[in-house]
Amino acid sequence: MKTKNVMIVGVGGQGSLLASRLVSRLLMDEGFDVKVSEVHGMSQRGGSVVSYVRYGDKVYSPIIDRGGADMVVSFELLEAARWLNYLAPDGLMVTNTQRISPMPVITGAAAYPEDLVGQMKLAGARVEAFDALAAALEAGSSRAVNIAMIGRASTFFCPDDEKWQRAIDAVVPKQSLEINKRAFILGKKG
Amino acid sequence: MKMIMLGNEAVARGLYDAGVCFASSYPGTPSTEITAAIAKYEGVYCEWAPNEKVSLEAAWGASLGGRRAFSGMKHVGLNVAADPLFTMSYTGVNAGVVVAVADDPGMHSSQNEQDSRHYAVSSKVPMLEPSDSSECYLYTKYAYELSEEYDTPVLVRLCTRISHSQSVIDAGERVLPPIKPYEKNIGKNVMMPSTAVFRHPIVEERTQKLAALAEISPLNRIEWGGTDVGIICAGTSYCYVKEICGVDVSVLKLGIIYPMPDRMICEFASKVKKLIVVEELDPFIENHVKSLGIKCSGKDMLPICGEFTPNIVAKALGYPFAEGPEFDAALPVRPPVMCAGCSHRGVFYTLAKLGTTVFGDIGCYTLGAGAPHRSMDTSLCMGTSVSGLHGFMHAEGNEAAKNCVCVIGDSTFIHSGVTGLIDIAYNGGDSTVIILDNSTTGMTGHQENPSTGINIWGEPAGKIDLEALCRSLGIKRVRVTDPYDLAACETAIKEETAAKEPSVIIARRPCALLKKVKNNPPLFIDEDKCRGCMMCMKIGCPALTSAGKKIKLDATLCVGCEVCTQLCKFEAFKNNRAEADA
Q1: Average pLDDT value for chain B
Q2: pLDDT beyond 90 at B376
Q3: Are B337 and A89 in contact (CB < 8 Å)?
Q4: A165: distance to nearest CA of chain B, Å?
Q5: End-to-end CA distance of chain B
Q6: Is B167 close to A11, i.e. CB distance below 8 A?
Q7: Which residues in chain B have Cβ-Cβ distances shorter than 8 Å to A35?
Q8: Beta carbons of B336 and A21 less than 8 Å apart
Q9: Which of A95, A108, B28, B122 lies 20 to 30 A from B297 at CA?
Q10: Are B246 and B151 in the same domain?
Q11: Where does a domain end: B152, B185, B216?
Q12: What is the pLDDT of residue A43?
């Protein structure tokens, strides 16, 4: 099978590490060779973050380059636009509609761009946008945005909910297990 | 057993299975998770050391004590640990010693892009370089055999994309080698001129033997493909070459980076039409290949600066690569920032307000150099804030430099700031040192340190009393202030910079992200009272944004630190909704 390339992008602190671990766990259980490249350290402090997930028969490169991603899952709208040129020509952008202002916007040095979904479509991308924050809040915590987004993107990797639930059991901390399971289901429904 | 883990976690598993009994490290991205992971295994003594030099020396001691030992660090950490490493090369080991060093091409979380491979040559210590988690596991285990058989410490070189990439490994079982009893041996373990002179030739002989091993080791292998182009590579570069070129080219993959297999390289070169070395950072392999009189390409095709990506390598090698959809609009950048409720914010706000010259250091608080505070003038390496300020004050004169301070975190102060403070205490000057004590090692992900009183396992441990430590050095003016209290911060900084003697301000408030910290509930904004004066925006809190002419507060981020409340002249910030809506 041709190696599949997925990127998980967002803002440091949104839980992209846990999300990429959940995906990698599922893919390993599915018997794929998997590589997931994460970001730790300085960029985690509210900066733009990215995880690369690659899987197939044999995976070499740990990262994906521009024009290479079959899917980009973005936890934040501006970050979706930032990483848009990483999409392959027929790639899919799945993005949260939540807006988190970066420091230049907070200080008033720049404005948060309007209608990013429209602009991304205009650039020729396939875009699916939905409110993962609402799904996470309905599930019980704003912190579950990450798992709601993975729920939304889940069928790309594997349609079987039971397998996902097993992977969630394996990687999500016990105290937030129920909220995250709900967030996954609500996210999947969109 | 098959598992998926980070390169760093795979190194830790390799340590465990190799029977390592002692691990001592100082945290540093991208190396931190090795030691954090080994601490979770039973039967391994683990510790966070005050700095890398101490950790490597402790590992050497543990090796003399007969147990396999480990020390892990980031690339710049090896600068700190270089002193023991160079002479450990002479003494060799008793039980095996492995040092993992993680480079950071692209500087995701570092102040420079140094290439640690040069250390292997200059310290005459063998170096292995894995290219995925599976090799991290296998090479780490093998490094202990090498260490004991050749009586040398062994370096395992990692980089960000190896350390922080997860891939599948097939782990074995822990095997405890027999303890190697300590034997007194002055000629081998006391390095002074009369003994070291006999050890140096042994080191040179050892390198010759290791070079012979490199010729036949399965860690160095040729993967034959097309012979028009032959590529020599290692680590991440091997991954990119295999991904892009497949079997079009022949590949010599080096797992032993030092010493290199000269005969193997010559043979490989003779069988391919064009030879290219693909390696990140410096032309380390390339220069060696050229020193053998072999023509090859390398840095004439590929960049010396920055991290490789598949497209960079594809472009250099003449392979096609895709470009994604172009997005025309200019997007605001998203630099990392101090978190909402960060205990450093109040200090940087105050320093910016006072126009103070600030010698900075390495940690979360380096973000104080960014907007909106921009209240940091320097950052060089761990500890330099204190010693740098000392030199600056003497050069400028105490009077000219009276509005100058340095800022350094609790962990960085222990690492190497305290020696700078000793310089100040001993040689005098009016320096003002601000210790930003957030009771953790923040940037690397909340490791304990000697000032927190808790060890790597979360158990009670010795606790360095920072006030007592500073006083014991002879600093008479030592005061503690709460960085959430802006007025107190300002008074402390004004008074201490005005004092005609050295002083230390400890700005103490635990990191708001620590689990044990009970944060306040989020604040509310009374929209009728908010005049949109934007005073509160000067603190650069990510929980506050301007929405039109009013301020909006993100309740999911706000931890109720009330630093913004102190700046609001119109009492718009309230502690509960009822008050805000009233």
Answers
A1: 96
A2: yes
A3: no
A4: 18
A5: 62
A6: no
A7: 132, 165-167
A8: no
A9: B122
A10: no
A11: B216
A12: 63
Cβ separation of A46 and B336 shorter than 8 Å? yes
Q: Are residue B180 and residue B313 in the same domain, yes or no?
A: no
Do both B253 and B155 map to the same domain? no
**Total number of domains in chain B:** 4
pLDDT of B55 higher than 80: yes
pLDDT tens-place string over residues B83-101: 999 999 999 999 999 999 9
Distance from the Cα of B285 to chain A's closest Cα (Å) equals 21
Please tell me whether residues B17 and B154 are part of one structural domain: yes
- To which CATH superfamily is domain A4-131+158-171 assigned? Pyruvate-ferredoxin oxidoreductase, PFOR, domain III (3.40.920.10)
Reported ipTM: the value is 0.94
Largest CA distance in chain B: 85
- Spell out which residues of chain B touch residue A123, defining contact as CB-CB under 8 Å: 325-328
Question: Which residue on chain B is closest to A145 by alpha carbon?
Answer: B556
Same-domain check for residues B131 and B15: yes
So what's the pLDDT on residue A42? 64
- Look up tokens 């349609």; give the residue: A159
CA dist A70 and A8 (Å) reads 11
B321 contact residues in A (CB cutoff 8 A): 65, 67
CB A84 within 8 A of CB A125: yes
> What is the C-alpha to C-alpha distance for residues B278 and B299, in angstroms, rounded to an integer?
8
Chunked into runs of 10 residues, chain A (190 residues) has average pLDDT values of 95 91 93 91 78 96 96 97 95 96 87 95 95 96 95 95 95 94 94
Letter string b/e over residues B408-423, b meaning 16 or more CB atoms within 10 A of that residue's CB: bbbbbbbbbbbebbeb
Structure tokens at B49: 């050391």
Question: Best of A18, A106, A115, A176 to disrupt the B interface by mutation (most B CBs within 10 Å)?
Answer: A106
With respect to residue B246, please indicate whether it lies within any of the assigned structural domains.
yes
The confidence score (pLDDT) of residue B330 equals 86
Domain with B451, as residue range(s), is 345-508
Q: Are both B444 and B468 inside the same structural domain?
A: yes
Scanning the structure block, which residue is given the tokens 């010759």?
B208
- Please give the average per-residue pLDDT across B136-157, as a whole number: 98
In degrees rounded to 5, what are phi and psi of residue B506?
Answer: -100, 105
